[in-house]
Task: structure prediction
Amino acid sequence: MSCQHAATALLLRYLANSVTARSGLVMSPSAWPLWMPTRLPSREDTGALLGSEIMKRIFLAVLALSIFLAATTISSPAVLLAAHSGGARGHVQSTNGSLTLIPLTSTDGLPHWGQQVTFNVSTTATTEPNVSLNCYQNGVLVYGAVAGFYPSYPWPWTQIFTLSSPSWTSGGANCTATLYYFSGKKTITLATMSVQVYS
Result:
């Protein structure tokens, strides 16, 4: 039996006990839940059933049952998951943008260690897009840089990425470029691309 069914049964039993206590009717335990009184109600019994005290007890019991059922419905996993998802903050994935790698100093059209690259950015989602580039060797981060790609960005020279660092002194690397922007406390990702840097 579920929690809701158990609570319903208990409240119905409470109602029955309240009615029989006021009316003088005796419930046969073996006949629960379909029970019949052991004697027929008199006119006084009927009046007692319609008394204000009984109606008050019935109203309070039904109100308690309604509140319990509503609470158990709201706290169900599906509803909690939906509420939690709707209130999520942080990283959001979108598709309203494009990102293209442009090698600047390559002789074969491919990015190599020590060379410089930039990106062609296109988006209608924001007027202040940013690009981050992270590179890994054997799963270890060896390079990370970010730059804004919009006219008012105060450090435009950082839009040129030099593929080397004190931790990346030679060899190829697996890189990921991300086009994103900020919206309040959220970071909205517009596009990502994998970049293979050769030695």
